Amino acid sequence: MSSDHSLLPARPGVDEPDRLVLHARDVQFDWSNLDLHWIPNEPFATHVINVLHLLLPEGERWFVEVFKQAVPHITDDELREQVLGFIGQEAVHAEAHAGVLDHMDAHGLDPRPYVEQIAWMFRVVLGDRDLSGAREFAWLRTRLAVIAGIEHYTAVLGQWVLDAKKLDEAGTDPTMLDLLRWHGAEEVEHRAVAYDLYTHLDGGYPRRALAMGVAAFALAALWVRGVRFLIANDPYLKGRIEGRRPKASWALRDGKRGLIPHLGRLARAVPEYLRRRYHPSHHGSTSQAVAYLAVSPAARAADAAEQEAARKEAEKALKQQAAQREAKQQEASR
């Protein structure tokens, strides 16, 4: 499937699962063998995607904090369960991508100057304010609207990476590809939660539309700046690729080649979201996301570790119960 076909409505005849019970998978990734340019011979495409590692840790920590503030206002039990599952997944996402930043630093590319700017944006510009009452709740709803818009984009990106067979053909590092697809699958899996939460607490179209405009502009600007930062600070590139400074047309070229998200698809995401009858469930494939999570090496290892921990905990409980019974029997026989 072409990368420009991402986030299409589910194909007729394909059964989509009902609302899933979301749970965090405590995944682990080993970056010891990862090259700085993990798409072989494609440093530009690598760094276009690497911007996600710069943006996501701080952004997803902010998502978690805002959602925690929203939980007490939720009156629907099913939605509350979905929000708590979302919080767990986003917290793990943030830490998984933070590990890549440490790897960049070890290779001589210090991401901290850019990441500190991202942290300032989320913690100061979009952070808590000295408000109370109705004004505090309005600021919470505004931030939820921004998150709903961003989550539409992360679902677009998640579906794209699940479909991006050209990354496999290019020899992309398998551990990095698993990170991107595990994360992308969970974004598709929980793509409706932020929108449903915003609808539950507000639902106003003007706020939703304005927030999406802000989110789309900010993401585009930050992505362009992020690519420039990475290429300029890459110790192997020093601002040039094969002796040339990167051009905007390279993003179009690599999008057509299927190595990065197609710019046309990203642009269409805005009017798609602004439709009055929009809902995230109309787009993307939950069944495809669930299918990948069933075979993802990191997700399978996390599930196995969770099951082993549960087994040991059950054994411990049984031993404690047996010891208590034995103690009672000894006490009774005296």
Automatic annotation (TrEMBL):
Residues 308-318, 325-334 have a biased composition (Basic and acidic residues). Residues 304-334 are annotated as: Disordered. It comes from the Bacteria. Pfam families: Metal_hydrol. InterPro entries: UCP07580. This is Metal-dependent hydrolase. It comes from Nocardiopsis metallicus.
